[in-house]
Structure formats: C-alpha cells, structure tokens
Specification:
With about 70 residues, the protein is mainly α. The chain is built from two helices and no strands. α1 (about 10-35) runs antiparallel to α2 (about 40-60). It is elongated and about 50 Å long. Keywords: Membrane, Transmembrane, Transmembrane helix.
Amino acid sequence: MMAQASDGHVLLAKKLGGLFAIIIGCLLTGVGVTFESTVTMIFGALFLTLGAALLVLKIVRRNQGPPLT
C-alpha cells in the first residue's frame, strides 16, 4: 500500500528527524571520545539509536503492502 497524501508530513518528519538525530549522535559521540566524556558518548549513542529507529520505522511503514507472488 502506498503512503497516503495525509501521511506525507509524518513520513517526512520521521526521515528528517532520523537524519538529524544520526548527525547529532555522530557529533556527540565524536566529542565524547575526544574529551573522554562518558555522558556525552552515551547521549551520542542514544541519538544514533533514535535516528536509526526512526528511519527503520519509516522504511517498514513504506514497505507495508500485499506480498508479491
């Protein structure tokens, strides 16, 4: 099933939010490693996980539909 027009804003928000979270997560993790800050590395890893989860949810939602036979 294709995404409806009303779902477009939600899917775009998940995609942009996921990409933004991954970028912030990479930056925070890098800063945490550089300055040996465990808290910053943990927040970076959490943002990376959040971003990946948002993108996976978007992909799973987009690929829902009848199986190809």
